[in-house]
Structures
1.
Amino acid sequence: MQTKFIISALAAVAAQLLLPTEGSAQQPAPVSPQVVEAYVKGTWKSPPEGWQSRIDQDETQKLCSQYRNSPPANIAQNIVAREKATVVFPADGKVLGNWKDGEKVAQTGTGGQFTDPPDAVKGGNCYACHQMAAKELSFGTLGPSLVEYGKIRKYKPEEAKETYAKIFNAQSVQACSNMPRFGYHKFLTEQQMKDVTAYLFDPESPVNKP
Ligand code: HEC
């Protein structure tokens, strides 16, 4: 379904791009956001229960789409301020859980997909975008390498707290980040976010071993 959705959305964009425009044969017509939006919505006629909110864009997503992830400075500032206000820190004040469980969160890319049962444990899929432990063979490079993340930050508690906030809501730090907002969307649990923060900040974690 997801592949179909992407193909449909791409087809809509391609159709727009290929439309000949009068007087400017070489210039593709600009893609109308309304057309793309309508097309995307049209591919999700009967979303699974609870998925409607995942299709509707919130204010931040609308702005990021409008400015193609490069909003002007004042709008970026507003986004960061709004997203920062959504961050909820653990009630017990501890942002570090168990790094071994955090490693699983980082390595798991399943859960929350339309093919998964609704009660499947969700993973953070961090490795899809980040190198984390130097020993790991396979990782994506959309995000920066996080090798020795805690070590470089001298395992400072305030750095760990900021990292927890980053994982909770990436846009509380950078407007229109390509990183998912794990806590904001309640995609990961508080415990999972603590565990993955520990994966980055525990001196015993493979992340901090060369
Ligand atoms: C879809 C890709 C993607 C996924 C999945 C992802 N990230 Fe990221 N992440 C990024 C990108 C892109 C950046 C750089 C831009 C930014 O800072 O938001 C980033 C930045 C970060 C940073 C800040 C890095 C710095 O320079 O200080 C941390 C920490 C981080 N990610 C941790 C995680 C963790 C932990 C997970 C899994 C729970 C995760 N990321 C999952 C894309 C991703």
2.
Amino acid sequence: MKQELFFDVIILGSGPAGFSAAIYAARGNVKTAILDISMFGGQPSNYLELENYPGFSLIGGFELMEKFEEHADKFGVEKFPMVEIQSVNLTSEVKEIETLDTIFKTKTVIIATGAQAKKLGIAGEEEFKGRGVSYCAICDGAFYKDKVVCVVGGGNAALEEAMYLTKFAQKVYVVHRRDEFRADKIVCERAMQNDKLEFILSHSPVEIHGTNTVEKIILKDLKTGEHKELEVNGVFPYIGFSPNVDNFNGQLNQNAQGFIETDVNMQTSVQGVFAAGDVRNTPLRQVITAAADGAVAACNAVKYIETLETVNV
Ligand SMILES: Cc1cc2nc3c(=O)[nH]c(=O)nc-3n(C[C@H](O)[C@H](O)[C@H](O)COP(=O)(O)OP(=O)(O)OC[C@H]3O[C@@H](n4cnc5c(N)ncnc54)[C@H](O)[C@@H]3O)c2cc1C
């Protein structure tokens, strides 16, 4: 028999959005729990350091997330790491999250489950992740001063990130599998005017090589089948992001890529369900924007709870 636990706010995901929501909700004096399918801390716990979180000119990702967690602890947030979620029902007035041993019941849910960069799926990609393979130019671009890097992709994000990388790198290759870019005309025009960019169309990446860090990428010419090598210090795949929404698909309005649609209050299409951070349809996926979303979501969840009169939890 599963235990039943009752909360005012349940936050799914313990990255910057989740912990920030937890701090604001618990401080708003509502019974708050945070659940994660993994260890706490979200994406920043997995990378070395950040240089752009205000107040810290340089801080380890793990260290920053420990601070978020300690802060949430101070306000008595109940924590459930490594949960195995079996089902999530968001549409009833009392929302339910069922795990292997517990049925969590709650008045509101804040979804802060993040997103993952789509992988190229080629040899060397996993091996050199964090050692030359990066999925975030804004985060890691400054480490490539005067180096040569390669961006893979042909949409707005790929071209914009490639242009951003030219602030640091001496040369940026843009490799795209089609013979024209998918990016908006204005973005393409700006990219074409950038002398540091070199475009390699109708090619796809096949392998990444190096010793300690990335040294070269092998490309395949999709018209002739021939392979060629590019000497590069970094590879930035920009072939899109996918939101972590497996548990909620179909219950909420999502855009074509699956990101959750919210209004400015982080309210989703379902009453009492909010979304924050990388999982939602947002123009910037960074720690500061995720944390800000979490704060907005939590404040509005608390307001929503105050309007409820007869919810039976
Ligand atoms: C390599 C790399 C470097 C980066 N560097 C920087 C940087 O320098 N500066 C910066 O500002 N940003 C950086 N970012 C971006 C930043 O990390 C993200 O924008 C931020 O972490 C998003 O926070 P989030 O809380 O929305 O999601 P996440 O941090 O992704 O956290 C989501 C959490 O939800 C959990 N989860 C997933 N599914 C479920 C589920 N069904 N139920 C419960 N929990 C679930 C996950 O386990 C995870 O812990 C970087 C990203 C990457 C990949």
3.
Amino acid sequence: MEELVLLRPTAEYAKQIMECKKEYLAAGSSMDGCGSMRRTDDPMEYIEKCALEENPETCPDSLVPATQFMLVRKADNKVLGFLQVRHEFNDYLSKYGGHIGYSVRPSERRKGYAKAMLKMALPYCREIGLDRVLITCTDGNIGSEKTILANGGVYESTVHEPNEDEDLKRFWIEL
Ligand SMILES: CC(C)(COP(=O)(O)OP(=O)(O)OC[C@H]1O[C@@H](n2cnc3c(N)ncnc32)[C@H](O)[C@@H]1OP(=O)(O)O)[C@@H](O)C(=O)NCCC(=O)NCCS
């Protein structure tokens, strides 16, 4: 596979971030692991919010501190996907959301990037003091389930998420 890097969103990628958002919307795709992207059309506001949310001192009270990454292909500096690591749990995350959310931009799916992106994020999870991570996926999301299993995920249980009225499968990865 080509050389890939996980980077925090910065102004250099502002245009691409909005292109990705457009792609997700056009495909009717969820924006898992994209943080506040759905709620703003201003990439600089998004980038700023990501930075604020990472720092426990500036993270809004309604959220837990989280690190936002983008997967970037070095050869053409293209943003391929997004992944968010939550440093701790609130009640919702401990049951339904888990530590890590991710998505790959629709035009770059089925090329192994989700598997690669999750693999690259696990050492960071260890660095911030986690010794195991919870990842959840909708029952029937084969691509996500395979991504988790390929990275050592062990199935724990299935829970019903009331807001979306869907069953979620919970997996743990030991770090
Ligand atoms: C789920 C998602 C992240 C997968 O990304 P991806 O880059 O296409 O995944 P990969 O190419 O790394 O594929 C991982 C595995 O899943 C399989 N896969 C991927 N998408 C699939 C699909 N739609 N149907 C069946 N299998 C699929 C791949 O063939 C691969 O299988 P393998 O291990 O046997 O080779 C992507 O479809 C996405 O962003 N979906 C919307 C957001 C989402 O569901 N996020 C996860 C929330 S838990």
4.
Amino acid sequence: MSSENEIILSTSGLTKNFGGLVAVSDISIDIERGSVKAIIGPNGSGKTTFFNLITGTFPPTTGKIFFEGRDITRYSMYQRTRAGISRSYQITNIFPYQTTFENIRLAVQGCSGAKVNFFGILKKASTFDNFHEKVIDIATIVGLDPARLYVPAALIPHAEQRKLEIAMALATEPKLLLLDEPAAGMSIEEIPEVIDSILRVKESYGDQLTLLVVEHKMDIVMKLSEEIIVLSEGKIIAKGPPKEIQQNEQVLTAYLGGTDEELA
Ligand SMILES: Nc1ncnc2c1ncn2[C@@H]1O[C@H](COP(=O)(O)OP(=O)(O)OP(=O)(O)O)[C@@H](O)[C@H]1O
Ligand SMILES: [Mg+2]
């Protein structure tokens, strides 16, 4: 947990309507710098939409978003990345035919403003060295298998692919990282590997990094987060330490009838 209670991200009355559907409804929340929080909620409760609003995929219908005290509500996605917000996606978002290394390098390079020439060769060898070192650093932090760094990303195991996505999200040197279901589609045996990876990332960056993780699987949430935010029908219905949330009646009711049995 952060030593100070400085707020890095704050939303005020954040709302997103899709036609008549209110996907995110009047969310006002403060996130402390350096904290790790999980967002849970039944399918369609607005978790990904909330992330999309923070990262600027689309503007909110109403409400505001503040990052480090600045109103970023009208910032483009690019401006938000520059400000220090990054994310991974619920659905795998890697270049399958590029190697693991190349995927990270492209992400690092993409945010550095470096120029490549017509043949895709970087103009300065020294710049290449910097990229190389940074890619290896990030790969090590997320725990990617060094033996698989030069294999096309499509051919590495699913858990490694999810770690690769976290690595790519880290390439922009974010202060706030949003992970949307980092263990989606993973087998039970693969899950601890991804949890370890996220814990290692958090440990490496300490209070420099704030983490928001959307996750359904309660065992992951329990291991990762200090606080859980529960969404239902676009609204925050509960917020608190994992142990408390697990026994919260309103939360259990929101999950009843759904496909999620993790809370039971
Ligand atoms: N771009 C969009 N256009 C129209 N409706 C959308 C759009 N994105 C999301 N929705 C709707 O908004 C609601 C919230 O969706 P969202 O994807 O945020 O939920 P979620 O909590 O992430 O669900 P899941 O657990 O299934 O990933 C859903 O009813 C969804 O169909
Ligand atoms: Mg989602």
